[in-house]
Amino acid sequence: MPSLIVLAIGGNSLIRDEQHRTVPDQWVLARETCRHIAEIVAAGHQVVVTHGNGPQVGFIVRRSELALHELHPVPLDSCDADTQGAIGYMIQQSLENEFTRRRLAKMAVAVVTQVEVAADSPAFTRPTKPIGSFMDEATAHARAAQEGWTIREDAGRGWRRVVPSPDPLAIVEIEAIRTLVRAGFVVTAVGGGGIPVVRNARGELHGVEAVIDKDLASALLAIALQADQFVISTAVSRIALDFGTPRERPINRMTLDEARRHLADGQFGEGSMAPKVRAIVNYLEAGGRRAIVTRPDDLERAVDGEAGTIVER
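^ thats the sequence. predicted structure below, dont judge the formating
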């Protein structure tokens, strides 16, 4: 049956590997992913797209560091906005071209989205969110000493810079997004988890130096839109238990209670699957019907219940 789907694309899913991370390389993967999204739209579903931006923010920050002898640094909230615009443009254009090829009477639009966080969130004193490129340990420690970074090993894949990641509380542009969805647009929103903003005593917004977890913000969007399905597209075909061990086993289906239990047992890495499962739990606890984790190539089959890990209450 046709449904409203919030589909979260990982920022790393636009970067195939260290040898293919340029903007043209990202365009190639954006177009590949959008072919699958267009197929889902062609099947009659409404789709709202979100995306990660960790590597892309890291690239902007690094360019800013290298240019400090000539130019001012770029604040992290501006980096979030920049990547929302650039990646949203890739998705918007790629989808429009796919709709044209299929002669679908659909239009895509990207919304630069602010997401409110608490000014007194403890996250600001405990940086946890990885951004930027992976580094070996020696390089990471050297950069930390040079730049004053907090660094952390990321799920066995290398070392990365970590920054504050407060929980998302509210999507500022939610009514605009709702209106566009009701009008039939394929909307890209809450890119990179949204631009983190706080309100002052007068209710005015201003940006803060942080990034918001893309999956948690995407779940918040799915809840606000009362989406029928919340789909997370990532590098793996399914969620696995005992990941990286001889006992590793993929899961086809999981209940909400099982997801809670596996999170409590520490089954999922904080730099990889844990935020995704936590976002799924949030969505289902708020009344969501079905959540799915899968890879881009399996998106159409996953939406039909034939691929990925399906999590339901």
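The longest strand covers residues 129-135.
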